[in-house]
Design goal:
Shape: rod-shaped
Oligomer: single chain
Structural class: alpha/beta
Number of helices: 14
Distance between the termini: 164 Å
Mean pLDDT: 82
Radius of gyration: 45 Å
Strand order of the largest sheet: 1-2-3-5-7-9-11-13
Number of strands: 21
Helix content: 25-40%
Low-confidence stretches: 18-45
Length: about 500
């Protein structure tokens, strides 16, 4: 019994000691907090701190969560400010970026902005400000709507904006998505541009970046991609645009296309197909061409409307034309299409379109065209080659061609456009100017019965044979009556 009481008293004493210790710890913590709150040095270091202090000459500082640049000096001590040479501002809302906010940092030469919103760039109004030679933009943006409706963070960068830093020599853009980037030749002191990750537009106006790379003034990482803002295009356009494809590869297509594009044609790189080849369009309308032009590699579409081209065989045989999926040859002088070349060009692909409206075609290789269609159906192709054939002088007097041609128009109409404009030539003896699809070709091309049917020929032969037999019998009969001579075959019989 006594032992139980001793154990109970011991437990109570231990519990009381634990409570006293806990209260003491809480009191010390609260005192420490109050002391920190009243200490100006502690208050200054809550958002900014020096991470690398090398003696008394220079230091690096990092500030996070600033709501404005004016807060900068209030979070660093007077002794620290003149020593700072590299300043990193992270996760901040920079409503205005100007050197006027850095006048208290005379040694500053490198400014790094990380994961921050920058809304405005303003030129310094003061004559005394630090010479910032290096600017690093790491995942920064300037579209306020990203915080409201969840749009992707994007950044616009112009020469005028960068003129805020007149001594700028090195510009590093890391993981930023640029909807616009000026040609930076006007930034007079800028010697080096470095782009890592992120993305930017892949239009022809960015070819200057490749020129800078060749001159050693710029570097772009292989992980930097082309960027197409989702709010500027529909989803189908983005799918076949440069979006998310390597920047250097896409700009290489631009550069090669410009170099290989022959005047008077104009060439544009529009995007990337699913097979990773570029979508290159060549425009040569009304250019006085007499033959198909030389085109850039990987050209997919070409328009040569309104020229004097009479031979289209180059389309089927030239290496540069093997990626073509649409060619417009309207209003030319083409009068013939080689069936074998057409078949070999089209047979292994279903994404080809050839427009031949307003030419001088009178016939086509209809058997090869039907063969292409039949093979595509058998192989389960969902897309078929397309032909534009309207407003040509079709020969409706050639029944062998006409019946096959009309069958194509009837049963393979997905391959043929402008059916209403496919008409017989005005020079045709039959149905001049009529729509071919509406003609009664069976009646028009029905053959007249021959003068003699096979049974008639057989009857004539049988009659002639019977007449010869009768004449032979009469001849043998006369010889026997006059001379008693039996027919030669009778004398050879055993019985005679």
């Amino acid at each position: 019994m006594i032992r139980c009481r001793v154990m109970w008293y011991t437990a109570v004493i231990l519990w009381m000691a634990f409570v006293v210790a806990a209260l003491g710890t809480q009191a010390r913590t609260q005192f420490s907090r109050n002391e920190s709150a009243n200490n100006p040095d502690t208050k200054r270091s809550s958002l900014c701190h020096v991470i690398d202090h090398q003696g008394d000459k220079h230091a690096k500082a990092v500030c996070k969560g600033l709501s404005s640049m004016q807060e900068l000096t209030s979070h660093l001590t007077v002794e620290q400010l003149p020593l700072i040479t590299t300043l990193t501002i992270a996760s901040s809302n920079i409503s205005c970026l100007t050197l006027d906010d850095f006048v208290d940092l005379p040694s500053l030469h490198t400014l790094m902005l990380n994961h921050s919103y920058i809304s405005d760039w303003k030129t310094s109004l003061l004559t005394s400000h630090p010479n910032v030679t290096t600017l690093v933009l790491n995942h920064c943006w300037d579209n306020a709507t990203v915080q409201i409706i969840g749009m992707e963070p994007v950044l616009t960068l112009t020469s005028e904006m960068l003129s805020v830093f007149p001594s700028l020599e090195d510009l590093h853009i890391v993981d930023c998505y640029l909807v616009h980037l000026d040609r930076l030749d006007n930034v007079k002191n800028l010697h080096k541009l470095n782009i890592v990750d992120g993305g930017l537009g892949c239009e022809e106006d960015k070819l200057w970046i490749l020129d800078w790379i060749d001159l050693g003034r710029a570097t772009v990482s292989n992980t930097t991609t082309c960027y197409v803002p989702s709010f500027s295009m529909n989803l189908l356009d983005i799918k076949f645009s440069f979006n998310a494809h390597p920047f250097l590869v896409c700009m290489g297509y631009h550069k090669n296309t410009q170099r290989e594009c022959m005047p008077p044609c104009k060439c544009d790189v529009m995007g990337i197909k699913e097979n990773l080849f570029p979508i290159i369009r060549v425009h040569c309308q009304v250019a006085g061409l007499t033959e198909l032009p030389q085109i850039p590699r990987y050209t997919t579409r070409i328009n040569v409307t309104g020229n004097n081209i009479s031979d289209m065989s180059m389309l089927f045989t030239h290496e540069r034309y093997r990626h073509i999926d649409l060619i417009t040859l309207d209003h030319n002088r083409i009068s013939h299409m080689d069936g074998k070349l057409f078949y070999n060009f089209v047979k292994n692909r279903s994404d080809i379109g050839i427009s031949l409206s307003h030419n001088t075609l009178s016939t086509l290789p209809v058997r090869e065209i039907r063969q292409v269609f039949n093979e595509a159906v058998q192989e389960g192709e969902s897309y078929l080659p397309h032909l534009g054939l309207g407003n040509n002088p079709w020969n409706c007097d050639d029944c062998d061609f006409l019946s096959e041609f009309q069958a194509i128009l009837y049963y393979q109409s997905p391959m043929v456009t402008s059916l209403i404009d496919i008409r017989c030539s005005d020079q045709s003896a039959n149905n001049a100017g009529q729509q071919i699809i509406t003609l009664d070709v069976k009646s028009q091309c029905a053959h007249e019965p021959p003068l003699l049917q096979p049974i008639d020929i057989l009857n004539i032969c049988m009659g002639i044979l019977l007449l010869l037999i009768i004449l032979n019998f009469l001849h043998n009969f006369v010889q026997y009556r006059r001379h008693g001579n039996l027919p030669w075959i009778i004398t050879k019989l055993p019985c005679c």
